[in-house]
UniProtKB/TrEMBL annotation:
Signal sequence annotation: none
Keyword Transferase assigned: yes
Statement: the UniProt record of this protein carries the keyword Ligase: no
Single GO term (MF): transferase activity
Domain of life: Eukaryota
Organism expressing this protein natively: Limosa lapponica baueri
GO cellular component: NatB complex
Family note: Belongs to the MDM20/NAA25 family.
Protein name: N-alpha-acetyltransferase auxiliary subunit
InterPro entries in the record: NAA25_NatB_aux_su (IPR019183), TPR-like_helical_dom_sf (IPR011990)
Keywords, comma-separated and alphabetical: Transferase
Length: 737
């Protein structure tokens, strides 16, 4: 593909990438398929399409792309290689085997330069082996030192360097006067020289953009060997810790925090601020201490202050599988990275001939695909996206379509779910009876799975609302069966029954009143979901959908019973939503005897209120789509008959009253949130009199910092909730049939 045609393809793909990154997935996909249909063979178009398909999480399309390319350019080793790797990403092992035959024909002999490098490395290794066999420790030491100057990340040479060094020290070896130290050059024969050499390697590496780990591990190895030999002063190695190292007093700080956590759980409110103060101050002196960060995450989350948590989690620099093992502490952790990278590991293993690792990586990928935490994050992320976008910037139907959601499909592997959480990631010095037990692990997994089932069913029920599309003519059962809509309402009703069963199981589970250790697994939000009435509200809303559908199917005639049932549902819903709002009232932070007292449960209730009112509005939009055509038909009949007054069915009045009350309730909640914002803004932390006057000025500074972080987090949370409710209020105002 040459000239203008090639340029045309490249421009289209770049445009598609732009559309994908601005949230216009459907347009991007259509454009990409247009280019793919042209079967491009230029590298730029192929690479750009590969990038686009990866961002779309559609690796199977990359295989089709390169299948077309190798048909047109069968002699391209590069395209065959790309096709092989594309098959590896999607697990098409038979096709990989077929493609390998073609790849074998492209294998070429290594260049002379590669041969020369290999021979040189072989010579050095043979020399080293010979020197060791002959116990020529000066030569061993000098050669390993010289090789480390070339490559300071080669661990085998560090081991040889240390082995030879201590052999020379034990033999009291000294260099011959006026001669070369050895056949290989300068020899190190004292601890002082070794210390200086390792510190120089660390200094050199610290200048690089990506320092190698070899010199740092070598320092630890030297300290270990010196300790083993009884050199307790370790020749100043580690005397003053670097900022990147754990500090000597870190464990004392952790012990103090653990004791304070116990006091907090026993009702001593001031203890939580002392915990956070100690941890923030400790982190300022020991910024690499993961335990400090994990405990801060845990406590801030327990207080409902999520704003400082994002930065703390990011600073942990969690790698790959760690997102799955520690992400439960902070559930917003991105999960695409580890799952995508497992495919890349498989490809790297093929590239570099590490074939024995490939089954391990495949098993690892399967384990991640069945991850409980991944299923939770994915479900909560989609629910959150719907809350923030659906019927605001895009319609509910468009939002659900972009997520490829379907009420009939349940892609969570319930039977194979794997609990990959590391529940012992936090240090714990509690006695066994207060430590996390196997029973705690089992119960926590059971609770997490129950909560995931409730959330998944809720998501699927919401995704089913746009499928109940209204047709103006009343439908009879035969037509319904033909066009498949009956199966849609059957799916909704079946999911609703499953949701009720899951909720019942959850309530029974909570009757056990399980208390997990404070350093063990955090509980789910299931208890709050039941106690504040959100569950009952949401279940009632989905039952309302079933009733409205029945009215839509049977028509307005002879439907007095259904209309009455719908009217009662509207009244009951308003009462339940009002009750939920009442459980949101109160101050998030209050001052008692100079100490801040937080009420994170109020914030959780507000979040559940926003979620429930959003579902109420999506259901109301469905009601509106059914009732509006009915009213329009009645008005047309009234005009034809020229009657001045035609009795309107009561369902219209019920719906209008319901919408009016929803509008009033939402306005009241917005006013309440404005009040919370004013209180949080007016709260002057510097005027708080700290009970513990023995605190140093530095400690007082950190106390103000942590209190300020919690205050700021609450403030931004209620601001976001208020903004979202204002958008929802605008939606309610449009529901006037």
């Amino acid at each position: 593909m040459l000239g203008a045609a090639q340029l045309f393809c490249e421009v289209l793909v770049l445009k598609a990438i732009g559309l994908q990154r601005t949230g216009k997935q459907d347009e991007a996909y259509a454009l990409a398929q247009e280019v793919a249909a042209l079967e491009p063979t230029d590298d730029n178009s192929l690479q750009a399409l590969t990038i686009l398909y990866r961002e779309m999480h559609r690796p199977e399309l990359v295989t089709k792309l390169y299948e077309a390319a190798v048909k047109k350019v069968p002699n391209s080793e590069e395209y065959h290689s790309h096709l092989f790797m594309a098959y590896a990403r999607v697990g098409e092992y038979k096709k990989m085997q077929q493609n390998r035959v073609m790849l074998v024909s492209f294998v070429f002999i290594p260049s002379k330069l590669e041969k020369l490098t290999s021979e040189l490395q072989s010579r050095e290794n043979k020399c080293m082996a010979m020197y060791k066999k002959l116990c020529r420790w000066p030569e061993c030491n000098a050669l390993s030192r010289r090789l480390l100057l070339k490559n300071s990340d080669d661990w085998q040479f560090y081991i040889t360097y240390f082995d030879s060094l201590f052999q020379l020290i034990d033999e009291s070896w000294t260099p011959p006067p006026d001669e070369e130290h050895s056949l290989e050059g300068e020899v190190h024969y004292s601890i002082e020289q070794a210390v200086k050499f390792i510190e120089e390697r660390i200094t050199e590496e610290s200048k690089n953009a990506r320092p190698l780990r070899g010199p740092y591990l070598a320092k630890l190895e030297l300290i270990r060997r010196l300790r083993y030999r009884g050199c307790n002063d370790e020749y100043k190695l580690g005397k003053s810790c670097l900022k990147t190292e754990l500090q000597f007093s870190d464990y004392y700080c952790l012990l103090a925090v653990h004791l304070l956590l116990d006091l907090w759980l026993e009702g001593e409110e001031a203890a939580v601020w002392q915990c956070l103060t100690l941890l923030e101050e400790g982190l300022s002196h020991s910024p690499s201490n993961a335990q400090f960060k994990l405990l801060l995450i845990r406590i801030y989350c327990r207080l409902g202050a999520f704003e400082p948590v994002a930065e703390l989690y990011s600073s942990l620099d969690a790698k790959h599988i760690q997102h799955d093992t520690i992400g439960f502490l902070f559930t917003k952790a991105s999960f695409n990275t580890p799952r995508n990278q497992t495919s890349e590991y498989i490809i790297q293993a093929y590239k570099y001939g590490a074939f024995e690792k490939i089954p391990e990586f495949i098993a690892f990928r399967n384990r991640l695909n069945s991850s409980l935490h991944f299923a939770q994050v994915r479900t909560e992320r989609m629910l959150l996206d719907l809350l923030l976008e659906a019927n605001i910037s895009t319609s509910l139907e468009e939002s659900i379509k972009s997520m490829s959601l379907s009420p009939e499909e349940d892609d969570i592997p319930w039977k194979d779910l794997r609990d990959n959480r590391d529940l012992t990631v936090l240090f714990n010095w509690d006695p066994k009876d207060r430590d996390i037990s196997e029973e705690h692990r089992k119960l926590s997994l059971e609770e997490e799975t129950m909560w995931l089932r409730i959330r998944s069913l809720t998501l699927r029920l919401v995704s089913g609302l746009p499928t109940l599309s209204h047709t103006i003519q009343p439908k009879n059962s035969e037509k319904t069966a033909e066009n498949g809509v009956s199966s849609k309402i059957d799916t909704i009703r079946s999911l609703l029954q499953q949701l009720e069963a899951a909720a019942d199981s959850g309530k029974k589970f909570l009757e056990q009143k399980i208390q997990y250790p404070v350093l063990g697994p955090p509980p789910t939000r299931m208890a709050g979901f039941f106690s504040n009435g959100s569950c009952q509200c949401q279940t009632s809303l989905f039952y309302l959908v079933s009733d409205i559908y029945e009215l839509d199917t049977n028509g307005l005639e002879d439907s007095a019973e259904i209309q009455e049932r719908i009217g009662n549902s509207f009244k009951s819903l308003v009462e339940r939503l009002t009750d939920l709002f009442n459980k949101c009232k109160g101050d998030l932070i209050e001052v008692r005897d100079g100490t801040l007292k937080t009420h994170p449960n109020l914030l959780e209730n507000l979040v559940f209120f926003v979620e429930t009112i959003s579902i109420a509005l999506w259901v109301s939009s469905y009601c509106d789509s059914v009732l509006r055509p009915f009213k329009s038909n009645l008005q047309k009949k009234k005009k034809k008959k020229k009657e001045s007054s035609v009795a309107m069915p009561p369902v219209f009045t019920h719906f209008l009253d319901y919408v009016t009350e929803l509008q009033t309730l939402t306005s009241n909640v917005i006013d309440h949130i404005k009040g919370l914002e004013i209180i949080l803004t007016a709260l002057k932390l510097e005027e708080l009199s700290l009970k513990d006057t023995l605190l140093l000025q530095e400690e007082k500074k950190f106390t103000k910092t942590v209190q300020g972080k919690v205050q700021s987090s609450y403030h931004h949370s209620v601001q976001e909730i208020g903004e979202l409710l204002k958008k929802r209020l605008d939606t309610i105002k449009k529901l006037k049939i």
